Amino acid sequence: MITVKKEGVLLQKAGFEFEDESVLNPAVIKEGDHIYMFYRAVHTHNYSTIGYCELDGPLSVKTRWEKPFLTPGFEYESHGMEDPRIVKIEGTYYLSYVAFDGDNALGALATSTDLKTFTKHGIIVPKVTYGDFDRYTKAQSKLNEKYLRYNRDAHILADKDLVFFPRRINGKLTFLHRIKPDIQLTAVDELTDLTDEFWVNYFLHFDEHIFLCPKYPHEVSYVGGGCPPIETAHGWLIIYHGVKDAIKGYEYSCCAALMDLDEPFKEIARLPYPLFKPGLDYELKGDVDDVCFPTGTVLQGDTLYIYYGAADELVAAASVSLSGLIEELLKNK
């Protein structure tokens, strides 16, 4: 098994009103010697904004804003901006997040060229009703029956964990998103291609867009996107979360898989066990118990730092040898 070092708590609520409930699930990006973190900051009654800090090295906070960096400005995100991820594609930063209006949780996007001013592009994932989803996918006999079980009670299907690949693949903008219980992949020439007609056709061939399915006991309930994919010589390293329904509730673990660079639907390898899972006090007890929820990484030499939300209450970090992780994955093709 690969050895992972849990580096401890990096960020917790600091007494600012906008994050008086919790801080968690950060987007992280390194530019030169600078490491920037955009994290979910939760105010009373689960009202989320995006907080900001800059790190001094991968494990030390240098500066931290005492006010939100990004706040809701539209009805579709009126109850919060949650769980950001960030990548840089062709000089533009793509900050994806979950927009929550109090009822619906859907992937949205903001972009920037300087990490200071962001332009919001709204919800970019499908806004599909359960009835339409059932109708469009009814003929797809191999579709996991959990799709209907997990989504039956929703009017609009929750589509979360929006994560972009850090470059175009075969010329296309490519991103992961998640309608339970699997992770789906979407690729388009430009974001303007994401029309209602596009999504109807997408659901009519929905089984062709499933990227990763639950496979092992630690992810048996469902899987979801985690950190932005990392390009390696052996394939895309996918750090995602897997969920299992244990006796005391759901347990969220950090998981790893390797996918083909040119055909990312093609799974090369997957760890048959969690990369790491809840085990420390701050992961086992919090706003939501038993959670390790990875959302960002930084690579320093051969050391991969993974940033994650612990028990939905604070930000923690873990580290692992990148070459060692790839070697371990390749033992599990």
Automatic annotation (TrEMBL):
GO MF, one annotated term: hydrolase activity
Recorded superkingdom: Bacteria
EC number per UniProt: 2.4.1.-
Sorted UniProt keywords: Glycosyltransferase, Transferase
Signal peptide as annotated in the record: none
Pfam families: Glyco_hydro_130
InterPro entries: Glyco_hydro_beta-prop_sf, Mannoside_phosphorylase
Family: Belongs to the glycosyl hydrolase 130 family.
Protein name listed in UniProt: Beta-1,4-mannooligosaccharide phosphorylase
Organism this protein belongs to: Mucilaginibacter gotjawali
